[in-house]
Amino acid sequence: MKLNPISGFPERLPNERIFEQEIIEKIKKIYEAFSFVPLETRAIEYLSTLTSKGSDDKEIYSLKRALAPQEEREKDPFALHFDLTVPFARYVAENLSKLNFPFRRYQVQKVWRGERPQKGRYREFYQFDIDVISRDELPLSLEAEVLEAYAKAWSVFDSLDFKIYFNNRKILLGFYESLKIDENKRASVIREVDKINKIFEDGVREELKKLEINDDAINKILEFSKVKLSPKDGINYLKSFNINSELFKQGINEIETIFSLLSESTLSKFVVDLSLARGLDYYTGSIFEVKLDNYPEYGSLGAGGSYQNLCGNFINKQLPGMGASIGITRIISLLIDNKLVNLKNTLTKVLVAVYNEEQRKECNKIANTLRELGCNTEFFYKSSKIGKQIEYADKLGIRNVIFLDPENDNKISIKDLINKTQEDVDDIYKWWGYAKNRI
Amino acid sequence: MKLNPISGFPERLPNERIFEQEIIEKIKKIYEAFSFVPLETRAIEYLSTLTSKGSDDKEIYSLKRALAPQEEREKDPFALHFDLTVPFARYVAENLSKLNFPFRRYQVQKVWRGERPQKGRYREFYQFDIDVISRDELPLSLEAEVLEAYAKAWSVFDSLDFKIYFNNRKILLGFYESLKIDENKRASVIREVDKINKIFEDGVREELKKLEINDDAINKILEFSKVKLSPKDGINYLKSFNINSELFKQGINEIETIFSLLSESTLSKFVVDLSLARGLDYYTGSIFEVKLDNYPEYGSLGAGGSYQNLCGNFINKQLPGMGASIGITRIISLLIDNKLVNLKNTLTKVLVAVYNEEQRKECNKIANTLRELGCNTEFFYKSSKIGKQIEYADKLGIRNVIFLDPENDNKISIKDLINKTQEDVDDIYKWWGYAKNRI
Predict the structure, then answer these.
(1) A and B: number of Cβ contacts within 8 A
(2) Structural domain contains residue A7
(3) Is A52's Cβ below 8 Å from some Cβ in B?
């Protein structure tokens, strides 16, 4: 039987999974603090649902029953979702009357993309998304709330100096309008500008020429794209433009209002980046991306934006909202690959050792008592020399070893392997009472 | 675009998902208390890996890239796992040198089976598994530990009177040996006896006749299958047999030893059930199944057993262990379908209301302060009449509404919608300090 890892389908060792799960839990708690509710959608959708958004169809995995006869294959097969946004839009449309609006949800699930694996690119990986979606208009205060929560979520990676690069589609479209670029070309210009980190200035110039944009406009677009400024300087820079475009002014106003509602610590993570365009069609206002300057090879680690009409493919109703995504698998891999994290082999705090089989039942009771008190406890699986059991605890990183000392009337004794102390204990409840905040 | 639910692929409403997630979290904490580590395997395996165990191949979903040309299809395609046991065996074999033994892991993931959906049967569903696996022999104390943890996990469903039906393959095989049934027929007899709840006594009699078992033996097998007794009576009953089979005696000894190591509250959940056979080939000793007498239509809600050699298809090494599984999706559906649970619409404790836009920044600060203190807080999305905002909180089940009272110098005021009280608060930190354990 085949035993090799499959490229693009990462699996974690237990210590890595402990870390990954802890991070996911911490982020959940932060989003819950901002009143997002948990949601999960099924992993499969109809293929026709997934191919409707102009996505890269070749990357989608469709399903068939392994040994089903040829004629049983459906015209519209099931397929694995490749992101959480399309399923979320479908879910909201399907359950419209049962949801409370504004609907804030978080969703952390695996998604699948049949692309060529490379650094930071997987075929099975976790996304962690939030969205807030409204039934009427979307106040900018809700956008600010999403961004506040999103920045707080990133702060769980305390060793990382992340930045949220921020822009607004209205600013880009307004700017292109002022350059007299045809309205029907502006979306294409956005898609080309979005490639600036991959194909660089010369590449973008080339592509814009193909769109028959004149040289003067191209120069101005590329000049504009160079701007990366702090929130305050960014807004001042934008205000210094004297452009006759309502859209442009609206965009500036949106950025300014949102920034005014962010906490100082969150705002300090933001960079106004006028090169940022985001490829996806559905964004209409705010757009943003999280990157780490020190690890450009991992690309974008998260992104999002606001939209006017996410569910338009499903229902005849405008539901504006904002979404923000964290590429969990990618960021966890970055941290592990670059040894930026101390991995724990165990969540266990106490090892109950057992000298001999006569002690087993009593030791078992102690272990169960500790577990009920909320202390993660391992019971050594066979009676053997106490030194061997301590060695085992030490190797795994279990801090305390409890044993019944046969040389001391089978009294409970506790070794602390970090402080290198040993104490006799009369009452295990009492011991845990003061030890729980220490270990 | 299609908006209908897909049969067999359940999706939860937010209040249902809040509950499902809480249950999963509680069970994780219990297994962690017993020193199990979290693990996840990729959702896909090679099809050849999944079809190796004599499983029902027709149920397996294999993957293909949606628009990949015919000739690109692999001979051995990827497929979605249909349980967590085969992937776990593959993972252990693959990472043998990197794991600590005895290796205790929990694993909660979705699995997929292309079967016909019916009550309690899904095509996409959660399994929650634990296993302990050893590199040398497996002491019965480890089996007892798995069962203790498993029973504790079931106790999170405090409204349910679950029972763990327990048997041992050695008892069955020893009993068949004493009936002079050919050694090579005994596994087939087990598979037929396992169907007793589906095809009943007459059906089993029919099938055993086909295996050319004589009438006397069939009668004794069916008689034996009727036994359902408490742990103590069950062991006494088995001991009363005067059977000349080492295997039979070994089986009794195993059950007795395991029971002697269980806590009283856990043992009280056990029923010795000599009809229990379990269809899967790899079990060699203990076998068990969890059922609810009141809800027979949901079938088995969980099951497990011990095995001598789970990884034999992957490596040339005997790794004995024991596994136990909870059918999370099935039990959650049972609870929701039968209204056995009070669902919460929100995890939020406080709604910060906002009278007018002048208050927005101050209210935003209060909300962020509460969030940092660990209080899940929603900020009402627009300024409007306070009554409307209180109504909203009430409808969702948010207990407290905080607002700046413009008629009282914008002092912080807190309404408790359950106690129907209102108080002015000078210090939000202080308020949360005493409120956090109350709300």
Answers:
(1) 246
(2) no
(3) yes
Q: Are residues B47 and B123 in the same domain?
A: yes
User: In terms of DSSP bridges, do strands B228-229 and B270-273 run parallel, antiparallel, or are they unpaired?
Assistant: antiparallel
Contact with chain B for residue A344, Cβ under 8 A: no
List CB contacts of A230: < 8 A, sequence separation 6 or more. A270, A271, A272
Q: What are phi and psi of A126, to 5 degrees?
A: -85, 135
pLDDT of residue B290: 97
Q: Is the pLDDT of residue B355 over 60?
A: yes
pLDDT of residue A4: 83
Residues of B in contact with A93 (CB under 8 A): 3
Put simply, whether B318 touches A (Cβ < 8 Å) is no
Residues B38 and B142 in one domain: yes
- What proportion of chain A, given as a percentage, has pLDDT over 90? 77
- With an 8 Å Cβ cutoff, are A98 and B13 in contact? yes
Chain B residues with CB under 8 Å of A44 CB are 6, 9, 124
pLDDT at A235: 97
Question: What integer pLDDT is reported at residue A214 of this predicted model?
Answer: 95
Q: Nearest C-alpha of chain A: how many angstroms from B418? A: 19
Decide: helix, strand or coil at residue B232. helix
Q: State chain B's mean pLDDT as an integer.
A: 92
Average pLDDT over residues B193-217: 92
Boundary-marking domain end, from B275, B306, B337: B337
Contact A114, A257 (CB under 8 A): no
Please tell me whether the peptide bond between B14 and the residue prior to it is cis, using omega within 30 degrees of 0: no
**What are A174-207's pLDDT values in tens digits?**
999 999 999 999 989 988 998 888 899 999 999 9
**CB of B136 less than 8 A from some CB of A:** no
Verify whether the Cβ–Cβ distance A396 to B100 is below 8 Å.
yes
Closest chain B residue by Cα to residue A93:
B3
- The DSSP line for A384-406 is --HHHHHHHHHHHT--EEEEEEG
State the residue for tokens 């990884």. B311
The answer to whether A348 contacts chain B (CB < 8 Å) is yes
- Whether residue A16 is predicted with pLDDT greater than 80 in this model: the reply is yes
Question: Taking CB atoms and an 8 Å limit, are B14 and A37 in contact across chains?
Answer: yes
Taking each helix axis as running N to C, give the angle between helix A360-372 and helix B140-154, from 0 to 180 degrees, rounded to the nearest 10.
30
Give the pLDDT mean for B19-25.
Answer: 98
CB pair distance less than 8 Å for A381 and B141? yes
Total number of domains constituting chain B: 2
Inside any domain, residue A52: yes
pLDDT at A67: 59
Q: What is the pLDDT of residues A292-315, one digit of tens each?
A: 988 988 889 999 999 999 998 899
- What is the pTM assigned to this prediction? 0.95
**DSSP letter string over A233-297?**
HHHHHHHH-----HHHHHHHHHHHHHHHTS-HHHHTTEEEETT---S-TTEEEEEEEEE-TT-GG
For A368, which of B95, B148, B345 is closest by C-beta distance?
Answer: B148
d(CA B236, CA A261): 73
Structural domain span for residue B71 = 14-162+292-337
A 18-37 → B contacts, CB under 8 A: 18, 21, 30, 32-35, 37
- Rounded to the nearest angstrom, the minimum Cα separation between B245 and chain A is 27
